[in-house]
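Retry 2 of 3 after timeout on previous attempt. Resubmitting structure tokens to design endpoint.
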């Protein structure tokens, strides 16, 4: 892995988190980061005196570069925050020089310079632009950066709608910049969270902007719900909904089992907040049987004695980290589950049939059983022995 960013006579050592699971060809910054850094350094006057906010800094490269400006740093990703903390520390930059906010904590401070990486999820960008409406000043400069393929007419239209006049740069190394001058007369309300309903039982499912399948039940989760009755009896057990998203799987398990405890966990702050909201709205009497944690897979669970002897883990693994297609997150989920489960405990996985999950589970657990399958998905179980 290339870990050395050298730019404008400066050098930073940057890694992706968790470092040991990354592909050797990946790095913790991209051409859009470089383009944004160079533009700001060469074109923004009186930079040292400006209040700065950084959005969607995937692995902390922007935070490390601009740490001397004491920026506020906003992200929906727990993994991004951990990457940023690691990179600040290994570059001997005081962690307290950056003020961290998650995506569900309001930031009311006026801002003079906004540095924003275009996220893959346009709904998250839309929510962030809406949030900025109350923070920008007539003098505020908003500079966004991203892959050229992510910056479309619809992307620019969001900046125009929620903030003001928007222009773009030429492409460089397949990256572009977006420049927006706020007019400070925008006051659009947010369309998020979105709400939809399950069929039987009829649960109201609330989804914040960055939640996967925020418009409807995703087909993998639907297939798992259709086959819940084929899974082991979960009553009076501790179940972890790993990568919980809006919590729809854990919600149904709480509903079907009187004494089950469900732990909802995801690396997205918006996902965990949505899962909690959905339990409170639909099964308020089960709040005491629910726990909600933002985490990278099950990193912190093995350090807490209350999670020793977990009975069941459910997961629908993602297959991308930021813009990289990868199965390393699924592999970490499986390894963490195997470490945490008590003997006889079970991991249930739903995933696309073409993925090599059966062999991965056999390597870890020594067994893998097909519970159900259709043309696109399979549900697998593995038992810790």
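Retry 2 succeeded. Sequence:
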């Amino acid at each position: 892995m290339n870990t050395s960013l050298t730019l404008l006579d400066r050098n930073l050592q940057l890694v992706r988190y968790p470092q040991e699971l990354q592909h050797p060809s990946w790095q913790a910054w991209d051409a859009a980061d470089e383009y944004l850094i160079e533009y700001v350094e060469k074109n923004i006057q009186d930079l040292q005196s400006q209040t700065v906010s950084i959005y969607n800094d995937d692995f902390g490269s922007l935070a490390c570069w601009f740490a001397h400006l004491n920026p506020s740093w906003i992200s929906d990703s727990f993994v991004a925050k951990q990457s940023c903390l690691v990179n600040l520390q290994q570059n001997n930059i005081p962690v307290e020089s950056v003020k961290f906010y998650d995506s569900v904590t309001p930031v009311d401070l006026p801002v003079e310079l906004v540095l924003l990486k275009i996220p893959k999820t346009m709904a998250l960008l839309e929510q962030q632009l809406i949030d900025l409406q109350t923070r920008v000043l007539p003098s505020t400069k908003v500079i966004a950066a991203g892959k050229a393929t992510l910056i479309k007419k619809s992307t620019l239209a969001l900046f125009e709608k929620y903030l003001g006049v928007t222009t773009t740069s030429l492409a460089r190394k397949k990256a572009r910049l977006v420049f927006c001058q706020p007019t400070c007369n925008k006051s659009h309300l947010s369309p998020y969270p979105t709400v939809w309903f399950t069929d039987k039982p009829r649960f109201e499912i609330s989804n914040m902007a960055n939640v996967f399948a925020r418009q409807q039940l995703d087909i993998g989760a639907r297939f798992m719900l259709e086959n819940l009755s084929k899974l082991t009896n979960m009553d009076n057990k501790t179940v972890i909904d790993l990568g919980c998203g809006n919590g729809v799987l854990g919600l149904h398990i709480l509903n079907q089992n009187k004494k089950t405890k469900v732990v909802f966990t995801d690396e997205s702050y918006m996902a965990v907040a949505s899962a909690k909201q959905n339990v409170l709205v639909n099964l308020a009497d089960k709040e005491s049987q629910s726990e909600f944690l933002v985490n990278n897979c099950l990193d912190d669970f093995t350090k807490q004695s209350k999670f020793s002897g977990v009975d069941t883990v459910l997961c629908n693994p993602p297959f991308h980290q930021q813009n990289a297609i990868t199965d390393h997150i699924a592999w970490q989920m499986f390894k963490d589950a195997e470490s945490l489960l008590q003997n006889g405990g079970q991991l249930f996985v739903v995933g696309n049939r073409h993925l090599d999950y059966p062999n991965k589970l056999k390597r870890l657990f020594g067994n893998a059983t097909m519970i159900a399958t259709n043309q696109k998905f399979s549900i697998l179980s593995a038992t810790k022995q």
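Attempt log closed. Residues 194-383 form a domain with the Rossmann fold fold (CATH 3.40.50.150).
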